[in-house]
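Quick illustration, no need to memorize.
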Amino acid sequence: MDATSERHPATRSIKVRCCVVGGGPAGMMLGYLLGRAGVDVVVLEKHADFFRDFRGDTVHPSTLQVMDELGLIDGFLKLPHQRLQKMDGMFGGTPVRIADLARLDTKYPFIAFMPQWDFLNFLRERGQRFSSLKVMMSTEAVDLIRRGDVIAGVRASTPDGPIDIEADLTIACDGRHSTVRARAGLAVEEIGAPMDVLWFRAARKGDETENVFARVEPGKMMITFDRGDYWQCAYVIAKGQYETVKARGLQSMLDDVVRMAPILKSGIAEVKSWDDVKLLTVAINRLKRWTQPGLLCIGDAAHAMSPVGGVGVNLAVQDAVATANLLSDKIRTGCPSEDELDAVRRRREFPVKMTQRMQMVVQNNIISGALKSGNEPLKVPLVVRLITALPWLQGIPARFIALGVRPEHVHSPIASMP
């Protein structure tokens, strides 16, 4: 049941203008932007820290541009990271080039690979200068507070007991398994995905180098990212086949991996058990309605993306920028109307739908065919052959991956500092 405005006498309570639920890229960026605008905002993160294995670690040029517009880019790029410009692959033994970001007319023509916890900690630390921003760690939203038909905040659990966070506006940024979205009863449209992904890491020697990031063979596909002292690996499997792969045994999977990517041979010994392999169940979905009175959903809580293109983090950041641009002035004086809240969906729904549509094209025309069982030789799809053969075409997928559809720029206000 949903919580009401009544609470147990022993329950602590705080009152804020805006409660952001979830300390991921959307939540932390939105918290930073609202704090910067002088909005009284609290961000809730259910974990004690941001450390998670195999969260999205790709920071694309669109996000780097946002960091530049916020005056944060110099400090941000001092954090350890790797850079990717050219996206090369092997398709059935044939080398291909999928995109070249160097062809883009943008200030930061590269993808930065950075642990997501470093990105989130950076925003948290830089946000500490805003007195109106508070980040509450180890605080999990478990229910909604309602006053009639209006959502008036969240009830959360903390190590010190429950707390009611009363808010004029609640913004759900708590991911694809959003508790807030579920409690609100918002309907999710499932679009589907033909694959799941097994994530693991292999040690990397200092002299090991390779530019190939995608490998496709009959019935198999994998991605490798050079992360400095290790290789981050994604072994792509057909949807729902995890138990089948597991039944064949870990060594069988690792043998397939080394056959596809011989450079991993020396470091694959780090994968000692299935505990070292993380399953990502891929989903593509989106909300039909992003709002209720007093509530807005953004990021993965509003639309789960496929890992194709690695754009999830950057779509979440774009949502946060658009939300702050459209609503920060209005939140300072109370809760925006539902129509004003829905302006965020109207702004962001087209980019989300176009991105998901392109992900489905790649999944249905390339990945699904590659994952079909059998030993028939793979033919490089015509569009991939053309992009490889005509370098000027490599800027088209590069722009889609790097900047996305309708990139957002920071227009939200800056409050005067005390």
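The two ends are 43 Å apart (CA to CA).
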